[in-house]
C-alpha cells in the first residue's frame, strides 16, 4: 500500500501535535513536516513536496486562502485538505475555488480526516455533507443531456478534455463543446465551480 507523505500547516502547537498523533497512528500515512504559519508552509512545501498538505485557514503572516492559492500557482497538482473552524459558505467556497480538494471542520473525527487525505491523494474531492449544505444557496437549476451528465462526471474526477474524449470515445473538439455547454447551463465560471454545484444538487456523487 502506497505511503502518503503529509505536511501539516497549523499555527496552534497542541492542535498540530494532536494531528500528528492521529495521522502517525495510521500505517499508510507519514507526517513529513509541520509548519506554524503560512509563509513557513510555502517554504516547507517547496522543500518536501508532500503528497498532501493539511492546512488551517487562520494562519499568521499568510492566510490559508493565500497559501492555497500560491501553492496551486507554483504546484498545479498540489493536493490540499483544509481543516478549519470556519464553517461559512463563503469560506468553504473560497477554499475550494483557491484549489483545496477537501474541506473539513475541526470537529471532524480522525477517521474522517484520514479518509479525506486518502481520497485527495487519489485525486478525488472530499466534501462532507456539512460543507455541501453550506453551499446550497449558490446552486442554480440545471437540465443536462445524458452526454453532458457523463462529461460533468468526468470533470468532477479532474480529467482533462483529452482524457474525457478517450473515456467517452468522442472527439476532443466535441468534449470542448460539451464542457462549454455544461458550464453555461450550470452558471459556473469554471470546472471547480461546476463540480461544487453538481455535488450539492446530487447530480454526481464522488466515492
From TrEMBL:
Pfam families: GerE (PF00196), Response_reg (PF00072). One of its GO terms (molecular function) is DNA binding. One of its GO terms (biological process) is phosphorelay signal transduction system. PROSITE patterns: HTH_LUXR_1 (PS00622), HTH_LUXR_2 (PS50043), RESPONSE_REGULATORY (PS50110). Signal peptide: none annotated. Residues 5-121 form the Response regulatory domain. Keywords: DNA-binding, Phosphoprotein. CDD domains: LuxR_C_like (cd06170), REC_NarL-like (cd17535). Residues 137-202 form the HTH luxR-type domain. InterPro entries: CheY-like_superfamily, NreC/VraR/RcsB-like_REC, Sig_transdc_resp-reg_C-effctor, Sig_transdc_resp-reg_receiver, Tscrpt_reg_LuxR_C, WalR-like. The modification 4-aspartylphosphate is found at residue 56. SMART domains: HTH_LUXR, REC. The keyword Cytoplasm does not apply. PANTHER family: TWO-COMPONENT RESPONSE REGULATOR. This is Response regulator transcription factor.
